[in-house]
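Kindly go through the following sequence and its backbone structure tokens. Advise at your convenience whether the structure tokens fit the sequence:

___
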Amino acid sequence: MIFSLIFLLVVTEFVRKGTLSEQHSLFWFVFALTMLLMAANTRLLEFLSRLLHIYYAPSVLFLFGFLLITIYSFHLTIIVSRQSEKLLKLTQEIALLKNKIEEQADKTVKSK
């Protein structure tokens, strides 16, 4: 519970400073609040552990944390892949435009 509170404060501070964008901070707020709720409400945690046939209730916290981090990591990998593809296309367009500019400059010099 203490870790969840500290984590929530850290996320809030990063958003306030502008280090973490609002787009990505929503996930971390939901993550911290979910972990805080589960840590504060032991009945919910015990209910989930019985539902999932997990004998040690705090292990459910680690399971949900691990699953959320894995899903978010996969989401970030998709974003990075898309941005890498866009960066490659932009680099190729810049190279083509630079080549055209150099060709135009050569034609101008030869015509004089």
Notes: The chain has a mean pLDDT of 88.
